[in-house]
Amino acid sequence: MYSLGIDLGGTKIEIVAIDEQGREVARKRIASPRGSYNETVATMVGLVGEVERKIGPGNPLGVAIPGSISSRGTIKNANSWWLNGRDLRGDLVRALRRDEVYLENDANCFVLSEAEDGAGHGHEVVWGLILGTGCGSGVAIGRQVLRGRNSLTGEWGHNPLPWMDPEEEQMARSAHCYCGKIGCIETFVSGTGFEREYERLTGQRLPGVELGKLVAAQDGPAMIAYVHYLDRLARAIACYANFLDPDIIVLGGGMSNVDLLYEGLPIFIRRYIFGGEFSTPITKAVHGDSSGVRGAAWLPRIKGQGERPLLLIS
Q1: Which of 6, 86, 191, 258 is the most exposed place for a label (fewest CB within 10 A)?
Q2: Residue 261: which domain range?
Q3: Total structural domains in the chain?
Q4: Which CATH number is 80's domain given?
Q5: CA terminus-to-terminus distance, the chain
Q6: Co-location of 81 and 155 in the same domain
Q7: 138: Cβ–Cβ under 8 A, 6 or more apart, which residues?
Q8: Do 136 and 97 share a structural domain?
């Protein structure tokens, strides 16, 4: 029996099938139907059908969602707003006619993938950070994802940026987060935050990929924006590493491809971490932007094993 994983992103939907050893046997990625819940469900069902025509029917399914599951079983906190308040699992169970459908936050799926057979393999406490259009974070201990009583574990990006200076406080007032708060870490250290900082300094908005190339070429304005970004990211990591103290930090998302981060972050973090000592390795995700979908495919195997449930922290 294979297991299926779907990564339900705001711009793309990706499906993968893996065998018991985690080897991929099928994969497909298509654009997401934005703004329509019914079209989203129909697209997911269509992808499952297409893959199962190749590998056989009835496989369990895990889904990485851009949000979390409320106490009512519906989706909450998704920046893909058309998912909020919807019983996605129930609708998939009915449409696919199978009970083995598992939903999990996309950052939790990311860290699960990297803890299982990625950069975090062999480490007890793995903290995964996704630095893309937004920010996601997940924590795995002993290859088990921490969800929390309110499904909030790892919501690192929706806390205030630590130790803001007056200029950053002014910036925070003009950069509202989609969650409704101001000053969120996400607005500063996401790829979007990096683009916004470069625009603030130069008056020109460039996509993160282009900014990454400018940083690699040591372009002056890009380097200034990068140092500001690096310092803010270091503060955000240090504040939470002070109480989590992970064995490894794994980065994903577009900003994880800026190679200079891995040289500068440990140095900057030591400026803010309690006691000034920080030896935790910070590394790029082994599976790159496939970690979310791979983690989703691992969900049925993890949740289906009674000795390894997802931890509920109370």
Answers
A1: 86
A2: 122-285
A3: 2
A4: 3.30.420.40
A5: 34
A6: no
A7: 105, 107, 108, 109, 110, 111, 112, 127, 128, 145, 146, 153, 154
A8: no
